[in-house]
Specification:
This protein is of the alpha/beta class. It has a domain at about 5-155 and about 200-225: NAD(P)-binding Rossmann-like Domain (Rossmann fold). It has helices at about 15-25, 55-60, 80-95, 130-145, 170-180, 200-210, 230-240, 255-260, 265-270, 285-290, 300-315; strands at about 5-10, 30-35, 45-50, 65-70, 100-105, 150-155, 160, 185, 195-200, 220, 250. α2 (about 55-60) crosses α3 and α5 (about 170-180) packs across α7 (about 230-240). It holds the Pfam family Epimerase. InterPro entries: Epimerase_deHydtase, NAD(P)-bd_dom_sf, NAD(P)-dependent_oxidoreduct.
Length: about 325
């Protein structure tokens, strides 16, 4: 990898992985968070600032070759309030300093589909979260096509990996109960095939996008696992970590929707459960062909995840 001057906004599992990988490969990295926390390693400088402040972010990014947006505004109910000013500021800062903008995104913008998702498939979101992510990409692409910035994004499915927190995916929440030997209440069909994305593969894709001019101006789907059901993933995590087999109790959808009247996160969750009502798969042949990124071996991902998630569940 060519050495770069890089700014990473956000220090969650993916932002931290990007910063560490880039620093290990010789890049000079600045990690921007509100708290000033992040990976404490050589080659990474931590800065505390509010990334919605375009001028402050631009000053911290002066001289950067690339800005990687790994920000996470928090829980779903906060997205509509917090994402627009944050995304606009990061896009504006990249334009101001002449940096390539690489954004971490997800698959929500595609909405319900009946075939594996590809990077060129039209975006047809079915809820406000998907519409928001689609709008963020369209704004970045418009700026790219106008020549104001060079932009691209990586779209990942639900996270797996030892550093993925409980809040990173529905699967991680189910696993927290399962690996502690408790029944897991699942919100949808646990026997539908699904694509899962390793945190390390997301980081590798973001870094490859930062360097490959051919990829700019387009979205790319992160290479992910083979189709694997929730039940099968939890069963394998249990086996690898020595936990009892999973006990899954499916909540009827009307119960979830009724709960949404009182619990905002349940209301937001209902908007993405379509991803588990049918096969949720990806076709990433183009990502592999252009960027050379292949998914990490699935048995290895599961083995590393099982140990970390079990320690967290019983710790």
């Amino acid at each position: 990898m060519q050495s770069q001057r890089m700014v990473v906004v956000g220090a969650g599992p993916v932002g931290s992985a990007v910063a560490c990988r880039a620093a290990e490969q010789g890049s000079s990295v600045v990690v921007v968070t509100r708290s000033g926390r992040g990976p404490d390693i050589d080659g990474v400088r931590l800065i505390a600032l509010d990334a919605t402040d375009r001028a402050a972010l631009g000053a911290a990014s002066a001289g950067a070759d690339v800005i990687v947006n790994c920000a996470n505004p928090g829980s779903y109910p906060a997205w509509e309030r917090e994402w627009p000013p944050l995304a606009a500021s990061i896009l504006g800062a990249a334009e101001d300093v002449g940096a390539v903008l690489v954004t971490l995104s997800n698959l929500y913008g595609y909405g319900p589909v009946d075939e594996p998702m590809t990077r060129t498939m039209p975006l047809r979101p079915s809820d406000h979260k998907g519409a928001l992510r689609a709008r963020m990409w369209e704004e970045a692409r418009a700026a790219h096509e106008a020549g104001r910035v060079r932009a691209t994004e990586a779209r990942a499915s639900d996270y797996v990996g030892p550093t993925a927190p409980v809040t990173s995916s529905i699967l991680a929440r189910y696993a927290a109960a399962t690996l502690a030997g408790k029944p897991a209440r699942v919100f949808s069909d646990p026997d539908q095939p699904h694509a899962w994305t390793a945190v390390d593969d997301i980081a590798a894709t973001l870094l490859a996008l930062a360097q490959n001019e051919q990829a700019w101006g387009s979205p790319w789907i992160v290479p992910s696992s083979p189709p694997t059901t929730v039940r099968d993933v939890l069963s394998e995590l249990s086996r690898l970590s020595g936990a009892p087999p999973p006990r899954l109790r499916t909540l009827p959808r009307p119960v979830v929707r009724m709960g949404g009247w009182l619990v905002p996160i349940l209301r937001e969750l209902d908007g993405v459960l379509y991803q588990f009502d049918r096969p949720f798969l990806v076709d990433t042949e183009e990502t592999t062909a252009v960027l050379g990124i292949r998914p990490s071996p699935w048995p290895t991902v599961l083995a590393e995840t099982a140990v970390a998630w079990r320690d967290r569940a019983v710790g």
